C-alpha cells in the first residue's frame, strides 16, 4: 500500500448487502470500510464522524432516502464522493442522482472488480461509469426525456471544438481516459486535459454529468 487507505462508508438498509460489499472491498488492502449505515441519516452522521473518502449510498432506505442524504452530504461534507447503489428498477432516481453530482452508480449485482474500481475512481476524484450499466440506463432514460433535453444538450455541446466533441462522445460511451486515448491516438494525459477543459466549458461537475450530456446531444464516437 503506497499511502493512506481509501476510507469507505456503506449505506444500505439490507444487512446482507452491506456484508457482501464489505467483504469485497476489504479484499483490497488499499480500501478500508470504516462504518456501515442502515439509512441516510446514519450515513451522514458516520461520514462526519469518520471523515470518509467515499460513500456507497443506496437509494431506497428508511428514515432518509439516498437522494436526500446525498444532497445533505454534498453540503455538509463536500469532500466525500458519493457512489449510488441501485437496481435497474430505479432508473428515474439514478438520473436524478447523477444530475445532482453523484460520482457514479453501481448495480447491486455488479462484479467485485467493478465495485473496487468504482471506489478507487471516486476516491481519485473521478466519476465511475460502468460501460454496460451506464449505456443501458441512459438509453432507457433517453426515450422518456428526449423532447425536453436533447435541444438544450446540443446547444451546450456546440461551444466545444471538434476534438473536444470527439472526447466527449467517448465519455458518453463510458470509456476511461486511457481507452479514449487509444481510440483517438492521444496520450492519457492529453485526454485528461481535454476532459478537464470540457467539464469547465459545459459546467459539469464530473464525467457522469458530461457523459449524460453527450448522450442527450446525440454525440457519436468518431
From TrEMBL:
Keyword Transcription applies: yes
UniProt entry keywords in alphabetical sequence: DNA-binding, Phosphoprotein, Transcription, Transcription regulation
Alphabetical list of Gene3D superfamilies matching this protein: 3.40.50.2300
Pfam family, one: GerE
Domain Response regulatory: residue ranges: 7-123
InterPro entries: CheY-like_superfamily, NreC/VraR/RcsB-like_REC, Sig_transdc_resp-reg_C-effctor, Sig_transdc_resp-reg_receiver, Tscrpt_reg_LuxR_C, WalR-like
Residue ranges occupied by any HTH luxR-type domain in the UniProt entry: 153-218
Highest rank taxon of the organism: Bacteria
Modified residues (4-aspartylphosphate): 58
UniProt keyword DNA-binding, yes or no: yes
Protein name: Response regulator transcription factor
Organism whose genome encodes this protein: Streptomyces yaizuensis
Amino acid at each position: 500500500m503506497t499511502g493512506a487507505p481509501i476510507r469507505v462508508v456503506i449505506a444500505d438498509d439490507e444487512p446482507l448487502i452491506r456484508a457482501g460489499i464489505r467483504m469485497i472491498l476489504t479484499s483490497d488492502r488499499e480500501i478500508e470500510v470504516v462504518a456501515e449505515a442502515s439509512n441516510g441519516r446514519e450515513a451522514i452522521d458516520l461520514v462526519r464522524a469518520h471523515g470518509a473518502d467515499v460513500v456507497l449510498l443506496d437509494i431506497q432506505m428508511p428514515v432518509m432516502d439516498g437522494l436526500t442524504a446525498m444532497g445533505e452530504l454534498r453540503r455538509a461534507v463536500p469532500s466525500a464522493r458519493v457512489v449510488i447503489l441501485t437496481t435497474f428498477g430505479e432508473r428515474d432516481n439514478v438520473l436524478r442522482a447523477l444530475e445532482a453530482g453523484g460520482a457514479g452508480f453501481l448495480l447491486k449485482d455488479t462484479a467485485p472488480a467493478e465495485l473496487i474500481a468504482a471506489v478507487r475512481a471516486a476516491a481519485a476524484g473521478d466519476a465511475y461509469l460502468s460501460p454496460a450499466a451506464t449505456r443501458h440506463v441512459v438509453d432507457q432514460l433517453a426515450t422518456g426525456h428526449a423532447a425536453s433535453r436533447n435541444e438544450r444538450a446540443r446547444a451546450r455541446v456546440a461551444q466545444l471544438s471538434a476534438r473536444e466533441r470527439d472526447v466527449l462522445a467517448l465519455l458518453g460511451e463510458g470509456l476511461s481516459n486511457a481507452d479514449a486515448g487509444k481510440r483517438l491516438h492521444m496520450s492519457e494525459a492529453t485526454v485528461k486535459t481535454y476532459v478537464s477543459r470540457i467539464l469547465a466549458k459545459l459546467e459539469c461537475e464530473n464525467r457522469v454529468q458530461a457523459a449524460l450530456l453527450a448522450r442527450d446531444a446525440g454525440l457519436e464516437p468518431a
